[in-house]
Amino acid sequence: MSAETDVLVLGGAGVDTIVYVPELPLPYADSYMIRPGIETRAGQTGDFVALGVSALGLRTHHLDMIGDDHAGDLIRALHRDRGIALTEVPLPGGTKRAVNLVGPDGRRLSLYDDSRSRDGDRLPEATVRSLAAASRHAHVSITHPCAFALPALREAGVTISTDLHNWDGVNPYHEPFAHEADLVFVSAVALPDPERTMRRVAERGRAQVVVATAGAEGAYLLADGEVTRIPAVTPPGPVVDSNGAGDAFVSGFLFGWLADEPAQQCGLYGAVAGAHACTVESTRTDPIGRDELLARVAESDGRGRQFQGVSGGRAGAGPRVVVPGLER
Questions:
Q1: Do 327 and 109 meet the contact criterion of CB atoms below 8 Å apart?
Q2: Burial class (CB in 10 A: 0-12, 13-18, 19+), 175
Q3: Per-residue pLDDT band at 2 (split at 50, 70, 90)
Q4: E strand or H helix at 254, and its extent?
Q5: Which residue has the higher pLDDT, 322 or 85?
Q6: DSSP code of 119?
Q7: What does the pLDDT look like over 128-165, one tens digit per residue?
Q8: What is the sign, positive or negative, of the torsion defined by CA atoms of 201, 207, 209, 210?
Q9: Cα(212)–Cα(200) distance, rounded to whole angstroms?
Q10: Beta bridge partners of 87
Q11: Do the Cβ atoms of 128 and 10 come closer than 8 Å?
């Protein structure tokens, strides 16, 4: 029987309050006048990956714990309006929330409310197994309940991806996700030696491919034992906001991955999708669509864009480009 879902996204549902500030870090002051206005909207990492892969034409289902509150209503409305299947489990502590400060250059500082989670929060195993059995692939957010879903996903036989975000390569919390996933994304921002961490993940876990995103240096790809550089792509418009750029990169990469494209080509899809995300204010959701992605990839290929090899130590610096958000 063929799968009903291409990508099952676990976790990462939440609501962000977006505040555009005059600079980051923000100097102390009694008050600031904020323009544009402060807005609250649905969308954290799992939501953005679900939106991103759905916009690229992949059949998508999102599973997470959500509160019976106004913030949860925003998440439910977002999925309903975008036609994305959502299976929700009650979250007693209330829907997850964050405040994101965004500077004029598009960089962001996220203040995550960690008070919503409880040690006993779980995604029901029967639900995880049922949804996984109908899916080709599962993308797992690094939220607490998702760690307990990993064995059921592995037993269901789906491939697994995860994004470790700003992992330092040491914190043991991230290790179950890093070691159970076939495809691992991580930010290079907190890694003293990204290549060493990437290789350690591959050696100790199941990962076939490890990607470390590195801001202006683009990203680094470990596949078939070789580390190569994925240069960033110049955004198609002014950079206004880096919120969701890393999730867009993941979405683009998964689009290629599930089409059995070579890893380097998947990286190009990710870079193009991430560059697009940097041109979209995070008070709205506008992920790149399939036709636009393929057109921009064709344009990039036509200009002779190449992937460059990396040898020894930390991957060398690439050309300076204006995509500030891919280190997320």
A1: no
A2: middle
A3: low
A4: helix 245-257
A5: 85
A6: T
A7: 999 999 999 999 999 999 999 999 999 999 999 999 99
A8: negative
A9: 13
A10: 63
A11: yes
